[in-house]
Amino acid sequence: MSDARPAAGLRVALFATCVNDTMFPGTPIATLRLLERLGAQVEFPTQQTCCGQIFTNTGYYDDALPSVRTYVEAFEDYDYIVGPSGSCVGSVRDQHPILARYAKNPALEQAVARTSARTYDLTELLVDVIGVTDVGAYFPHRVTYHPTCHSLRITRVGDRPYRLLKEVRGMTLIDLPAADECCGFGGTFSMKNSDTSVAMASDKARNVSSTGAEYVVAGDNSCLLNIGGVLDRQRAGVQAIHLAEVLAHTEEDAS
Amino acid sequence: MSPRRTPAPPPGELRDSLPFPKAAKIELANVQQRANLRHATHTIRAKRAQVVGELDDWEALRTAGAQIKDRVLRNLDDYLEQLEASLTAAGATVHWARDAEEANRIVIDLVRATGQDEVVKVKSMATQEIELNEALERAGIAAWETDLAELIVQLGHDRPSHILVPAIHRNRSEVREIFLEEMGTYGEAAPPDLDDEPAHLAAASRSHLREKFLRAKVAVSGANFAVAETGTLVVVESEGNGRMCLTLPETLISVVGIEKIVPTVEDLEVYLQLLPRSSTGERMNPYTSMWTGTTPGDGPQDVHVVLLDNGRTTALADEVGRKALRCIRCSACLNICPVYERVGGHAYGSVYPGPIGAILTPQLRGLGSKVDRSLPFASSLCGACYDVCPVKIPIPELLVHLRHKVVQEKAAHHEVHAETAAMKATSWIFADSRRMEAALKLPSFGGKVLRGRLNHFGPLPYPASLWTTARDVPVPPSESFRDWWARERGGQR
């Protein structure tokens, strides 16, 4: 009997991202389990490292190029590449072409054009490619969702995360005030302009706390590191959690 | 030395300002300013969103606004010659200024030729940029700002902190105090019983300014647009004070950046929709003044236009950076910016604050000063500025582009520091996943000793303190994802 699951027959390469790989392994593990539960065949090309965004956004184009090359080599054989980070996926799609042009390397430009076009945010892969919004998740908590800047304005995932969250059983989703305002992370901005970054993060944390949610959910662990960092320092009693981990969670995990 | 005619601005050169992070730290502690800015930016954001939402063709207008300016910039040499010919044919005199010094000297000479020792001013960013008021003051000529907010800034011995709303950092009780304290020294005094009702404050300024409007023989303006085809200059404003300056005096001198050109009058159709909705959140601004050279018996008969470069051709030579020259000075990017909202305009060390200032100032002034090198980094790259820009300037892309230029500039001066070394080392590690795996095995990476006893680090020493002063940080996990993958799925790719 053939596999009737929605992602059956889909071969996907998991782009874990360096931050998740080293600091938040629970997120790529959740992404993997979620996609496999939906029937996808998920592979992790181990030669992958980083999207290079930390170099690019700090102005070190030459230091970003090795990461661009590594990305292309790791993922060039795949039609679907998925990353649980709006920011890293945004960097691959928006900045890799700029860097390849900067390198004046037409072969790299061609290769980048392929890998960039085939790189998806997790919510895009679920909603557009696999065609599901109900992924069978169960998360019996009050949560609020922070739509990260790069999900909103670079990858432009729109309402996909909300459509996925609305189908999660047992969950109460509470609107976050001033949701579309930046949390102040901004990569090296959080260190170079730490006072301004903290001022922004404090306002975001205050808005999160005002919802009374137990969890603040987002599609990017970097932003959650920032928002959660303030909430933890305040002992606010709100836990930061990645969207993939919420969507991977089922009744079996709860029992 | 003769006494000053006009209120002195704060001492020091803008270019010598503190680098952005240090200036921001000071501004962030100004609670009154933060409250004023939060209120003002949120109000204007909501108004803009509402009126922009009314137009079905907003995105098409933005695209047209970007493309017309791009065409002008690609063919700027031709359009400038066309503008000069049109202006001359219409009875205006055209002057060319390479930089601020040349522009200021031209204006001083023109004012002196009239025999006058004072001018009234229409709100103008170009004259702020060249610091014309102080140049005139040094030449013994008093320059009176007539835009209400510019008047508040001038009387307050202050600097503008916003492109459109220069006194946005002040609230009405502060304005009342400035008027009571200063107006009498420089003209008609404010009524002693002045309260902080906006209508009463406006009435005090009207009375104070009226005396100057009726006396002035020379006016200085900028222009929002300069039409190459006809030589028509356009000033868009809210108060009508600009219109007074543009019509009553005998001599009118306009300082206009060379990027202000639009090819035809028809092109104004696009910008006169984009600008008011993006700036004040109005469908149409109250006053749009247009003049084409001189008209016998009507308005100023001695009309001069100073076309200003001052770094614009340098920006034009950079194919990425030149997109900043599309700017029509609407301020939508300032109003939406979460950084600007919290630190205000003074931290940017420039007459152009906010996201547009962070990409324009370092191009106009170069990367020589500490503040100019810090400006491209004064953003979290959240992208909100691009979404509201009426001429679709990809501000985040330009910020990153200019960060690269700062890094190149530092490398050219052999300024190797900790960041350069850290970036090089990390880049080497990320060039090969085997190096990354080896780095993850170093004992310094994980908190292996601490793990099990706590989940988060509290305050840590510098440089980690930049993060941990106000934010906890999780203890690294005991196993990376790639180690988990090797253990669980070993053998698979």
Apparent shape of chain B: globular
- Cα Rg of chain B: 26 Å
For the largest beta-sheet of chain A, the strand count, sense and barrel status come to:
4 strands, parallel
Mean pLDDT of chain A: 97
CATH top level class name of the largest domain in chain B: Alpha Beta
Class derived from helix and strand content of chain A: alpha/beta
Question: What's the domain count of chain A?
Answer: 2
**Ends of chain B: how far apart?**
81 Å
SSE order of chain A in H/E notation? EHHEHHEHHEHEHHEHHEHEHH
SS-derived structural category of chain B = alpha/beta
Question: How would you sum up the major sheet of chain B?
Answer: 6 strands, parallel
Estimate what percentage of residues of chain A fall within beta strands: 5-15%
Mean pLDDT level of chain B: 95
Approximately how much helix is present in the residues of chain A?
40-55%
Helix content of chain B: 40-55%
Shape of chain A: globular
Q: CATH homologous superfamily of the largest domain in chain B, by name? A: NagB/RpiA/CoA transferase-like
Number of helices of chain B: 23
The tally of helices of chain A reads 14
CATH topology of the largest domain in chain B: Rossmann fold
Describe the structure.
The complex is a heterodimer of chains A (255) and B (493). Helix content of chain A is 51%, strand content 11%. With 255 residues, chain A is of the alpha/beta class. Chain A has a four-stranded parallel β-sheet with strand order 2-1-3-4, sandwiched between helices. A four-stranded parallel β-sheet of chain A has the order 6-5-7-8, with helices on both faces. Chain B has 23 helices and twelve strands. In chain B, the strands form three sheets. Chain B has a six-stranded parallel β-sheet, with helices on both faces. A four-stranded mixed β-sheet of chain B has the order 8-5-6-9. In chain B, strands 11-12 form a two-stranded antiparallel ribbon. In chain B, a hairpin with a 4-residue loop joins strand 5 and strand 6. In chain B, helix 3 packs across helix 12 (268-279) and helix 9 (172-186) runs parallel beside helix 10. The radius of gyration of chain B is 26 Å and the shape is globular. The termini of chain B are far apart. Chains A and B meet through helix 1, helix 2, helix 3, helix 4 and helix 5 of A and helix 1, helix 15, helix 18, helix 19 and helix 20 of B.
